[in-house]
Amino acid sequence: MGCLDISMKAMTNNIYGDDPYLNRLLSYFQSQFYEKIIRMVPIRNHVFLVKTEKHTYILKGYQSYSRLRLQEAFTETLRKEGFSKTYMFVSPEVKEPLFFEGTYFGCTKYIVPHKKEFTFHTEQNRQEGLGLLEQFHQVTASFETRYRTLLAKSDLIEKWSKRMHAFSSKSPLLSCFINKPYFSEIMSWANWSLDGMKKNRQFFQNEPYVILHGDVAHHNFLRDSAGNLNLIDFDLITIGNRALDILQYANRILPFLNWSYDQLTGYKQIQQFFQEDGFLYALVYPADIFREWNRLIREKLYPDKDKLKQVMDLTIGQFYERKNFIDQIIRAFL
């Protein structure tokens, strides 16, 4: 099957949307809420804004009741320990706990967003986001031992090894989009990085531990209407060394720094880790490229020109800037 055939098949499979499901879900919510629902807006998969006559909520679906209860307990602990810059689970007036077609729904108080969305485009936002993440780590360090039986311990090497394998296993399809020289160099970065991380495995296991957020993307920083920055969405929390969240944050902001090594070292929360070989090896790993291509293929989104363009820019458009950044790190080990 050629590249064109694959794309046409994906387009055919994505003709039908989720409207029937949304209609059933709205009917279910209407049957359970005592207040009349006047609006329901899908935000992303299994997350909905629901507006009643008196209140506005965010309803989020979980695969099990235990996962919902964990999220409720964690956010409550956060607030009790002094971290209030996040959402709060609430109990709306409903006839029974919300459970629909295998999904348990939790309800949080709606945070009215600022008119200007938070992004990593500005230096002020990048600094503020990093500062908020630091506060989050300081607070979770005080109670992470209570969650060690509830949360998994982070294993970044294992996670990234699987991510690389998933990417490389799709090489026949990827060859439709990425020329072989680019693909080969990207894979060489990943292999060099993982080899170095394995040699420095202890760095990633060192205590003290915190509860890691695990997904420090821009959309999980929410500025409210008063201008206060909040950290949201704790679905991927694990136990581990705070360097792992800092590493992910660095990876997220590097494209906005034009992959500048010097600018990245200017952040004091990141700078301290540049003395650690394990951290430097991990900075080379193309986590974003693998993540976005794996998602694009898994969800069959590559026929979407806009989404494909975004991932191609990440992969090819920034290739030489990223290469210069990586070469600086590799030279430090020679």
UniProtKB/TrEMBL annotation:
Domain called Aminoglycoside phosphotransferase: residue spans: 131-251
InterPro entries on file: Aminoglycoside_PTrfase, Kinase-like_dom_sf
Keyword Transferase attached: yes
Coiled coil regions, renumbered to chain: none
Keyword Glycoprotein: no
Gene3D superfamilies hit by this protein: 3.90.1200.10
One Gene Ontology molecular-function label: transferase activity
Keyword terms: Transferase
Protein name: Aminoglycoside phosphotransferase
Lineage, broadest ranks: Bacteria, Bacillati, Bacillota, Bacilli, Bacillales
